[in-house]
Amino acid sequence: MKLTPTVQRCILHWGEMAGRWGVSRSVAQIHALLYLAPQPLTADEIAETLAVARSNVSVSIKELQQWDLVSVTHVLGDRRDYFQARKDIWEVIAVIMDGRKKREIDPTVQTLRECVADGKRDHETPEEVKERIASMLEFIEELSGWYEQIRAMPRPTLLKLMRMGTKVAKVIG
Amino acid sequence: MKLTPTVQRCILHWGEMAGRWGVSRSVAQIHALLYLAPQPLTADEIAETLAVARSNVSVSIKELQQWDLVSVTHVLGDRRDYFQARKDIWEVIAVIMDGRKKREIDPTVQTLRECVADGKRDHETPEEVKERIASMLEFIEELSGWYEQIRAMPRPTLLKLMRMGTKVAKVIG
DNA sequence: TTTAACTTTCAGATATTCCTGAAACAACGG
DNA sequence: CCGTTGTTTCAGGAATATCTGAAAGTTAAA
């Protein structure tokens, strides 16, 4: 499949940002391609278009499916898998953010809880330090809880909240 | 400096999460150490405590200073630099989030704007695809703008907002 | 059961990132 | 102005992460 320069640029940029977003370049490029593609693509088309190994496509797509960002469809009389990406950008971002929270925040909360628990039995560590760990845990938990509540809000409500911006301050004042 | 097991565990965990957070292991460990340490430490103490090369400490501390997470103090009659970390966890997290937004979001917004601009001149790319790029840009800009407004809110207001959780829905209904 | 089309696995090659240690550099006291 | 103490730079080595391609696995039609 031939890419237009504009699309190519998007895909390349996605690939460059991949590292910072915690996924490999291939995964990001494939996701960008499927997200932009007007119709579902086969693994072979993807490999050819992006010039990456066929096996790389398999592995990457598997990861994208685990993220629940890509799904499979089929064409009558064709055994090949046709892959398509979630098109609703709101959902895409939400899925990515959930994933990052799960991988980056939750394990830390877990560890900090254990550290705080350890602290009860530990008489070497200065109180001041234990308190610092505890307050860090508390704050992260609070942020984390807020995120979950925001996520649980219906989309129109959240949109309204976002559009209000700092004006909410007046309302909740 | 000898670390208590609880503190050691925190520091090791920080180091493990480092990769996912976009910094090197050393930077994360040094930050954790300075954050928890009751008093400022010299570069030599840090190197010895964490068993990393002295030069590594220099480079890492420089990075932490650029992030504005670590500062220098001095002791009368001692030429050495004593390093200390920001202790206010709220600020620490805010600084980190700002940095990540700057490195992970802003360049993408920039590129997407250019892609959308390119699209005007580009008659190869299907309209559907151009629209998808545009709506992605729009949504990311909206999220990004919201983040900035939230950041601009005074801390007590933000705290109140967080504690309200989904209850804001009723107020802004 | 065989064949052909498709997909996945995985060991090794490649690329990237990170860390070390030696050497250069800077600043101060004597 | 020299020696001491402290800091930084950077080339090369070590550790990770990523990608490839050949081989094995799967499935469905004949």
What would your notes on this structure say?
The structure is a homodimer of 173-residue chains. The first copy, chain A, is mainly alpha-helical and 173 residues long. The first copy, chain A, contains 8 helices and 3 strands. Chain A has helices at 5-18, 25-36, 43-50, 54-66, 89-121, 127-152, 155-164, 168-172, and strands at residues 41-42, 70-75, 78-85. A 3-stranded antiparallel sheet of chain A has the order 1-3-2. In chain A, helix 1 runs antiparallel to helix 2 (25-36) and helix 5 packs antiparallel against helix 6. The longest helix of chain A has 33 residues, at 89-121. The radius of gyration of chain A is 22 Å and the shape is extended. The mean pLDDT of chain A is 95. The interface between A and B is large, with 60 and 59 residues. The structure holds a DNA duplex (30 and 30 nucleotides).
Sequence-ordered SSE layout with sheet pairings:
The structure is a homodimer of 173-residue chains.
Chain A: H1 5-18, H2 25-36, E1 41-42, H3 43-50, H4 54-66, E2 70-75, E3 78-85, H5 89-121, H6 127-152, H7 155-164, H8 168-172
Antiparallel strand pairs in A: 1-3, 2-3
Helix pairs in contact in A: 1-2, 2-4, 3-4, 5-6
Chain A binds a DNA duplex (30 and 30 nucleotides) through residues 19, 24-26, 42-44, 52-56, 58-59, 62, 79-81.
Task: List its salient traits.
mainly alpha; 3-stranded antiparallel β-sheet; DNA-binding
